[in-house]
Amino acid sequence: MEMTKSSSTLVNKNTITSIAIGGFDGMHIAHQELFKNLDEHGAIVSIESGYANLTPKIYRQEYSIHPIYYYVLENIKHLEGDQFIKLLKEEFPNLKKIVVGYDFCFGKNRKYCTDKLQELFAGEVKIIDEIKLDDIAVHSRIIREYLKDGDIQTANKLLGKEYKIYGHQIKGQGLGSKSFVPTINLKIKEFLLPKEGVYITKTILNEKEYNSITFLGHRVTTDGSYAVETHILGENIKNSNYTTQIKFIKKIRDNQKFNGFEELKNQILNDIESAKNYFINIY
Ligand SMILES: Cc1cc2nc3c(=O)[nH]c(=O)nc-3n(C[C@H](O)[C@H](O)[C@H](O)COP(=O)(O)O)c2cc1C
Ligand SMILES: Nc1ncnc2c1ncn2[C@@H]1O[C@H](COP(=O)(O)OP(=O)(O)OP(=O)(O)O)[C@@H](O)[C@H]1O
Q1: Atom of ligand 2 minimally distant from the CA of 31
Q2: Does the pTM exceed 0.90?
Q3: Once rounded to an integer, what is the mean pLDDT over residues 227-250?
Q4: Ligand 2 center to residue 248 CA distance, Å?
Q5: Which of 97, 157, 222, 244 has the greatest number of CB atoms lying within 10 Å of its CB?
Q6: What separation in Å is there between the alpha carbon of 254 and the centre of ligand 1?
Q7: Distance from the CA of 20 to the center of ligand 2, in angstroms?
Q8: Closest by CA position to 249, among listed 96, 147, 129
Q9: What average pLDDT does the structure give for the chain?
């Protein structure tokens, strides 16, 4: 198989013989199940609603070897069923197979669903039954709720990977190294942030992965502003201009207000111990 991680623009649409269609925010285990039904000339047709925040558009290709082609929902949602099929056939002249999930609907007022797709498309239509894990239906919207609750472990199970966000480094209050521990402060734009609190994480800097601990939330003990700060365990990393990636593993505790810097510092040192123990026990 010659197809490695390909950018959609590099693959000629004429070679595509099968497609999976959907929003695909998260590229979670149910999405991956759809992709398993693609052949080696398979592609992903991603319909952009503008709300993706688990794997925003530019970060999605990382999670599949199949090239992703993006379409804007606004531009295609008015189509009647036959017009939608016509568009797909124009885009992918050699299309033989379409893969969708049980709840896939399309076109004007979402009135065309899987039965219509089978009726209108002359090739093969593969419909995937609802994928569940431990009785939880796997959907982007469900995963978002677990993240907002701070239940990273369940979210990660449904994602089939560690939830990962990208950010760029910004200047902090300048208190960390002096009064607490050194942290990299991040500006996060398009990604959903988990609940406020302290998390065991891994941080990727310049392609190197480090064990870390990350605080997200309003710094209620100091200046009250919202921050995402990560402390690399056992290293003193200087702030640099690299794009930083944070993979979430587990929540340690909620955000808290402390009576003074001393108490906060002691708690941070405890948090660091918990995180270090976590990493010792899993390796
Ligand atoms: C592991 C860790 C846990 C933290 N927990 C809290 C907390 O519970 N409450 C809080 O107000 N700030 C918390 N902070 C944030 C500190 O207030 C912050 O690191 C400090 O204000 C220094 O900020 P600076 O890096 O912008 O200088 C935490 C920071 C770290 C690294
Ligand atoms: N749990 C699932 N089981 C089977 N198919 C699924 C499942 N979740 C999504 N799909 C299919 O994957 C494709 C992408 O769907 P979509 O982007 O709506 O995912 P989703 O996770 O259900 O998102 P949302 O929660 O926003 O509805 C669609 O064809 C959809 O039918």
Answers
A1: 12
A2: yes
A3: 88
A4: 23
A5: 244
A6: 12
A7: 11
A8: 147
A9: 92
State the chain's maximal CA–CA distance in angstroms. Answer: 70
DSSP characters over 57-105:
GGGSGGG-SS-EEEEEHHHHTT--HHHHHHHHHHHSTT--EEEEETT--
Which atom of ligand 2 is the closest one to the Cα of 51?
26
Kindly state the DSSP code that residue 109 receives in the 8-state scheme: G
Across 78-92, 168-182, 222-236, least confident range = 168-182
**Which of the ligands is closest to the CA of residue 159?**
2
User: Could you give the CA distance from residue 78 to residue 89 in angstroms, rounded to a whole number?
Assistant: 17
Domain boundaries in the chain?
11-133, 162-282
Alpha-carbon distances, residue 13 vs 16, 42, 95, 99, 180 (angstroms): 5, 10, 9, 17, 54
ipTM associated with this complex: 0.94
Counting ligands in written order, which one lies closest to the CA of residue 48?
2
CATH of domain 11-133: 3.40.50.620
CATH number of the structural domain 162-282: 2.40.30.30
| Dihedral angle computed from the Cα positions of residues 67, 68, 69 and 74, in that order, rounded to the nearest 10 degrees | 170
Helix count and strand count (H, E) for the chain: 8, 13
Distance CA(203)–CA(105), nearest Å, equals 38
In angstroms, what is the span from residue 101 Cα to ligand 2's centroid?
6
How are beta strands 42-48 and 68-72 bridged, if at all? parallel
Is the shortest distance between the CB of 50 and ligand 1 below 6 Å? Answer: no
